[in-house]
Each structure stands twice: as C-alpha cells, then as structure tokens.
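Postdoc handover notes: sequence design on the structure in folder B. Input tokens:
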C-alpha cells in the first residue's frame, strides 16, 4: 500500500539563506506549503545549517520535509553537484568534505571579487553584507553585491557576463571527487542523486562515463526534470536512468527571489520519494 494516497506534490531541491537562496529556511518551507506542495526538500550548498529552522517550520505548517544538501564535487575538472538526502549530518567524511568545500568557496569568492574590483567598484565587505549568518558563499552573493553597487540589475544579468564561468573574472574551486562523494553519502546513510546532470548553460557537463562510474559507486538517482534541461535532454536522461537502474527526480532548484525558478515547477513522483525514504538513514519529517 502506498504511504501517499492521492495526488502528492513533491519538490526535492531548494535553497535558503544558509547558502545562496534569498529566503530563510523557515520561509522556504512556509512558501512551499503556500505553493501547495506536500513535500519539500531543503538542499543548501555544502551545509545542513538550515535544517533545524526548516524542521520547526515544517512541523508548524504541516508540510513534509526532506532534509538534504547539495554537495560540491568535481570530476575530470568539471563541477558536479551531488544532492544528498536523509544522511547523518554528523558523519565524519561528509562533515570534513563540506567544511573543506565551504572554505574553498570562501577563498575562491575572495579571488573573484579581487579580480572584479580592478574594473568595478566592489569590495569583499560588500559581499559579506549580502551573506546570511554562516552561509555557504557563492557567486550569487557576489551578484547581490554588484546589484547593491548598481553595476547590474539582478543576479541573472550578473551571471551573463561578470560571473559567467566563461567570463574574465571566473575562478573554479577545489571540490572532492564525485565518485568518492557518492560513496561518502552512502556511508553516511544518505541517498545520492546527481543534480541537473545536463545543465549545459552552467558550463561543461559531466561525461556519461562518469555518471556510469557514479552509478557503480552507489548513485541513487538522476535529477531529470529541472528547468535547465530541455525535452530531448530529459528523454535521454530518462533512458540513461532506466539503463543504470537509477531513480528519476524532478525539482525546482528554488533560490527565492534570486532566480526565476518557482517552487513546484518540476515535481518528483511519490513512489520515488518512497524509495528515497526507504534507503535513507533519517526519516522524512512529517508535520
Ligand atoms: P557557485 O556555487 O559560486 O559556483 O555559483 C553557482 C550558483 O549560482 C548556482 O547554485 C546557481 O544557483 C546560481 N546561478 C547560476 N546561474 C545563475 C543565474 N543566471 N542567475 C541566478 N543564479 C544563478
Ligand atoms: Fe545555488
Ligand atoms: Fe546545483
Ligand atoms: Zn541547487
């Protein structure tokens, strides 16, 4: 018997001010309920610092919460985002890797700002002013500083040139190997799902061979239904997931007012969530 009778709206990828979203974790959860979602996952970049506040909000508004994170990884020099659901946040390997990634992001953001500041009036202090408490820093915060300084209209315009991965100021950051991180997530009792595997607009995408290696290492699923994937890409990814025995998820990658992505714009099937919960160490929080 299904745990979820009737139509269920499930969005498995959102960000709060614990990373580069614009709304605090509790607000993301309340907005998810207001948007008619039954289940929402909070998946901030390289941190679980938003979980506690999200849990309180989920219990208060009666939306189910999947505790997760989006882990920075790399493979063959390509940036890879690995979603982890329902893992033990105290697991040593995950903690060490996420804290290292956060520090690498911090150093790298300072270098990007340093470069931009040669051509535009903007300082590291301007970026700090845009950052939530203990937030994982990212280019979106630099974008916010550039907006505050009046250099660009919004985050999207900042990413078109100044912050583009093909642009003159870009700098990558060191992140753990994606295949190794799949194993670490499983060791921590989590369910690893490859985020937006074919989001070409962000830069180079991970080769299929690496996805196969990740699948061998214990990858649980592919995030297929995502706004950065067109219809043809989604069809190919669905075929690949079927071939490799992976779950297929869909989600908004909501970042508050920082991106056009709307809560619930892509959804995950209830039976996929059931499989995720069956594999995960932590329960889904149900209000
Ligand atoms: P970083 O993590 O510092 O490499 O920056 C990448 C982050 O910027 C991703 O998490 C995206 O959510 C965000 N991002 C990428 N492109 C855009 C865009 N065009 N507008 C707003 N945010 C973006
Ligand atoms: Fe982001
Ligand atoms: Fe991502
Ligand atoms: Zn994301």
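Designed sequence:
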């Amino acid at each position: 018997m299904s745990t979820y009778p009737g139509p269920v709206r499930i969005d498995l990828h959102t960000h709060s001010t614990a990373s580069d979203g614009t709304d605090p974790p509790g607000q993301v959860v309340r907005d998810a309920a207001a948007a008619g979602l039954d289940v929402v996952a909070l998946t901030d970049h390289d941190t679980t610092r938003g979980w506690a506040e999200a849990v309180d909000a989920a219990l208060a508004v009666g939306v189910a919460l999947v505790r997760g994170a989006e882990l920075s990884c790399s493979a063959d020099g390509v940036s890879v985002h690995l979603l982890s659901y329902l893992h033990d946040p105290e697991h040593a390997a995950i903690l060490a890797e996420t804290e290292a990634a956060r520090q690498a992001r911090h150093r790298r953001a300072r270098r990007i700002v340093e470069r931009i500041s040669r051509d535009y009036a903007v300082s590291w202090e301007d970026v700090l002013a845009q950052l939530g408490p203990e937030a994982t820093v990212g280019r979106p915060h630099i974008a916010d500083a550039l907006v505050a300084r009046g250099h660009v209209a919004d985050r999207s315009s900042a990413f078109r040139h100044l912050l583009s991965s093909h642009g003159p100021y870009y700098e990558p950051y060191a992140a753990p190997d994606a295949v190794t991180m799949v194993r670490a997530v499983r060791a921590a009792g989590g369910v690893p799902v490859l985020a937006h595997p074919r989001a070409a607009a962000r830069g180079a995408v991970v080769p299929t061979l690496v996805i196969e290696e990740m699948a061998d290492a214990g990858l649980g699923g592919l995030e297929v239904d995502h706004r950065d994937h067109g219809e043809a890409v989604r069809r190919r990814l669905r075929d690949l997931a079927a071939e490799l025995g992976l779950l297929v998820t869909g989600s908004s990658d909501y970042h508050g007012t920082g991106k056009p992505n709307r809560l619930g714009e892509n959804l995950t099937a209830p039976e996929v969530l059931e499989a995720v919960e069956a594999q995960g160490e932590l329960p889904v929080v149900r209000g």
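Context for whoever picks this up: The longest helix spans residues 92-116. Don't rerun without checking with the PI first.
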